[in-house]
Amino acid sequence: MLKQTRMILALVALTFVTAGHAALPLAVDGQPVVSLAPIVEKTSPAVVNIRVSQTVAARQFGSDAFRRYFGLPDTPQGGTRQATSAGSGVIVDADNGYILTNHHVVDGADEIEIFTLDGRALEATIIGSDERTDIAVIQVEADDLVEMPIGDSEAVRVGDFVLAIGNPFGLQHTVTSGIVSALGRMGIGRGDTLEDFIQTDASINPGNSGGALVNMSGELVGINSAIISRSGGNVGIGFAVPTEIASSIMRQLLDFGEVRRGLLGVTIQQVNSDVAEALNTSVDRGALITSITPGSAAERAGLKVDDIIVEINAERIDSASELRNTIGLMSPGDEIEIRYMRRDRAGTATASLGQFIAQSALGEDIHPGLAGAEFSESSTSSTRGIEVASVAEGSPADQRDIRAGDIITAANRRSVNSIAELSQVASGSNIVFLYIVRGDRTILRQIR
């Protein structure tokens, strides 16, 4: 009788496996199952819904003349309005009330309120936030919280079953299931970010941001962060920040109040077949060094301009963005082994990473037409220039189509590699023409 029961359970589970992407595992803890309910019941109390209130710039409909003609009230210059948004978070330390979520969920928040599964509404404060990995840590003070154990995202494999738990479209504690579709995803177009995503086909929608990606042991393996969609809804392509990255960022935010990144000290360019042909080299992948900062880790390690970095710590480097992500996710003082090609001859070097310190400036300090934008310098970018870190909605910079992730390479036909150089060109000029790299194209914007 027991043998027959096990056979029936196995057949039922097999039916689920062949029925679609929201399939079920054959067993949990060695026991055959036909429901994900035990995992959901174990993990859901650790997932919270987040409501954020913030002050944003008010948009005024029509020009001043248009509004006067039709008798519409004016919006005062610099007018603001209150806006609310929703997201998700995961309690990872119940004793201290620490919650992992996305940077973009809480960025600019005036007030943060979280809602637990048992119906409590609690005020939260931001402990720290990191835009480049899209990870933030917030904290609440409450008793009887339930935390989710953090799993090993390095052990995740393509094809593993996962659950996504969050607050899509404001529908609290929604659970969806799927599999891991890919690992190490980069270049999904989120501006100046460090990307090493877990891709999943578990349904992720607006409001899921900051929620949990859970394995079949009921452990957190990712923080749901982004989707690819033309409609704004789920199309089966979602991305989560692995817990290996999220945990590292959380530790730094708790220990230092900031994220301290490693710095190699090189400017790099993508190597492809066209570059390889131009350089007359057989190496058609990796990151070509185009400049080296004096006194940097790269210079001390003996690297030279024209070297092509192809491996870091025995891990293959295929592109400039892979090198940028790899170094950007390391810490100052980390020792790394570099394999490079120098005129088709292989070489190795050991480097002790320095600390990346981003120089930043507000747009209004550079030019009135750039007010509302924040700019930063980054020597880890594969494109030399000034990066647009953020743009406030409705600001002068926003109205002139300046976007987060843009890289300004020149102003008034003069190359700019630092904020100081950009400010020098813009100072005293009523009109500034900015040459901007956006994705794979260069555009020109007039700022007045």
Question: How would you describe this structure to a colleague?
Answer:
The structure is a single chain. The chain has helices at residues 2-17, 37-43, 64-69, 103-106, 243-256, 273-279, 297-300, 320-328, 396-399, 419-426, and strands at 27-28, 31-32, 47-57, 80-93, 98-101, 111-115, 121-130, 135-140, 161-166, 174-185, 197-200, 212-214, 220-227, 238-242, 261-263, 266-270, 287-292, 308-312, 315-316, 335-342, 345-352, 354-356, 360-362, 373-377, 386-391, 407-411, 414-415, 432-438, 441-447. By secondary structure, the chain is an alpha+beta fold. The chain has 4 domains: 2-34, no CATH class; 36-61 and 78-257, Thrombin, subunit H (Beta Barrel), CATH 2.40.10; 261-356, Pdz3 Domain, CATH 2.30.42; 360-447, PDZ domain (Pdz3 Domain, Roll), CATH 2.30.42. The strands form 6 sheets. Strands 23, 24, 25, 26, 27, 28 and 29 form a 7-stranded antiparallel sheet that branches. The longest helix is centred in the first third of the chain and has 16 residues, at 2-17.
Q: Outline of this structure?
A:
With 448 residues, the chain is of the alpha+beta class.
